[in-house]
Amino acid sequence: MKKLLKLCLAVAVMASMLSLFACGEAPEEKKPAEAPAPEAEAPKEAPKAFKVGFVYVSPVGDAGYSYAHDLGRKAVAAMPGVETKFSESVPEGADSERVIRNMARNGFNMIFTTSFGYMDPTIKVAKEFPDVAFMHCSGFKKSENVSNYFGRIYQSRYLTGLVAGAMTKSNKIGYVAAFPIPEVIRGINAFTIGVREVNPEAEVRVVWTKTWYDPALEKDAAKSLLDAGCDVITQHQDSPAPQEAAEEAGAYAIGYNSDMSSFAPKANLTSAIWNWGPAYVKTVEEGMNGAWKGDQSMWWSMADGVVDIAPFGPMVPEDVKASVLAKKAELVAGKDTIFAGPVKNQKGEVVIPEGTTAPDADLLGMTWFVEGVVGTTE
User: Fold this and answer.
1) Could you tell me which CATH class the domain 153-274+304-374 is placed in?
2) Could you say which residues form the signal peptide (predicted)?
3) Helix-strand-coil percent breakdown of the chain, rounded to 5?
4) Nearest-CA neighbor of 326 among 197, 235, 203, 202?
5) How far is CA 150 from CA 189, 299, 352, in A?
6) Would you state the CATH architecture of domain 50-151+276-301?
7) DSSP assignment, residue 202?
8) Where in the chain are the domains?
9) pLDDT tens per residue across span 274-325
């Protein structure tokens, strides 16, 4: 019996060992070590846009000065990698300084300040932000990061004067003007030189409004000139109100800044116009490429495509069109003799002698009227 028990025990132990062997896990197979996964590259940041700001003295919808500048801004906004913003109807003085400073604080790379009265605020803010490029329109002060610019719009004024001189019957032409500063005085003089080149008997009567943009006041000024016998009205103002006054009175008109014919289709002979797009695009490209320089003065001309005249109205005779376009071709070719002597002032004194041409410095500082202008520079 004991032997039988021992035998059974031995069989049980054997069976248990066999069971463990049959059900046991195979030794773990060592796998080759995997190479560590490469670290994911951090997403690249999109390049920052080149931010360009514009400050306007009047509404962009005025069809005038600020409207023309904003057409230039839109050309810049279409450039790849550029972001633009504008502030409109910004008064000259403390308000403009605040607007310009806010743009500089908000990371704008280049700021265009487009009115003469923004000059000192631009210079002041530029000192605080030496890494920002500032472009001031129509002024004369500069610094390491401020350049000024303008266009020879007097060339367009001269051409429109040729038209006015040919079209007047009363020999009285009215000029609604903003402020008696060199920019405006120079334009009046060039216009008058054109008028008297084709009509020596004609005179140009000037009324000052002392505002860039006030449609009601501009219209009243035009009406006063019409009441004085003027049969052609032109302007250095931002709204088409003088054009409308001329059409209502059955007179002719010459616009400024943009083609104003749609506001007075029966009166508008042509307009002296700005085309800021090419100049603005070129300037911004220079800023983006690191080629822009401060302390510069740019005075773009008809040859540069920045100033021009609008299409003629249907009432302008073909011979007048032809003669004006011939003079325009000379200006486009770089032949500018508008302020070539002899040129007399209102007193009949020769101020630009025969055989000489007024240098740019004299034109930029012009404070006197030529012979043929009725009015004062005050």
Assistant:
1) alpha beta
2) 1-22
3) 40, 20, 40
4) 197
5) 17, 5, 23
6) 3-Layer(aba) Sandwich (3.40)
7) -
8) 50-151+276-301, 153-274+304-374
9) 999 999 999 999 999 999 999 999 999 999 999 999 999 999 999 999 999 9
